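Exercise: predict the fold of this chain.
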Amino acid sequence: MTFGGRSWRQVPETAEQMFEAFGIMRNLHELLWYLAEALTLRPAGPLHAELRRMLDETERLTESNPKTLAELDISACWQRVNALLLRTSELVRAGVRRKKTDFRGADLIGRNFSGVDLKGANLRGACLIRADLSGADLSLADLIGADLRGADLRATNLTTSLFLAQFQVNAANGDCDTGLPPSLSRPGHW
């Protein structure tokens, strides 16, 4: 749509511009994914109007021409959306009746969380590379930006985890007992 159906192969002189637009568009679509999920979260009801406005605004940006996309401050877009998603996460996780676990941005490489109750935990941006989360309960845990490369998710409950994306699941190891949100697919390598 951005380039009117033309391909960089057909018009090689647009390749650089198309590749730049692709990176920006990928970011915008990731924001749309998170905003759409936030709108499904009932406890975030007080924020739904604001979330809807942000979703509509972000959708409009995806319809921009290549020049406008190139000039877009994608970091500013992320900051605005992230602030709203953080408020959403806090509202949703407020219903968890236990001490909140906060590992936001923590280096948890290789840590053993096997069987641990991490319900409602804040794992935003946590580095969980090769962490053992097998059998852990990550219900209502905020996983936006968490690095799950090589993490062991066998028999882990992720069914109601917040802001879990397909690329995170694809990078991890799980099995048929790993509970995933209905919006995500079980990777073939599991």
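Check your answer against the key: Residues 12-93 form one domain.
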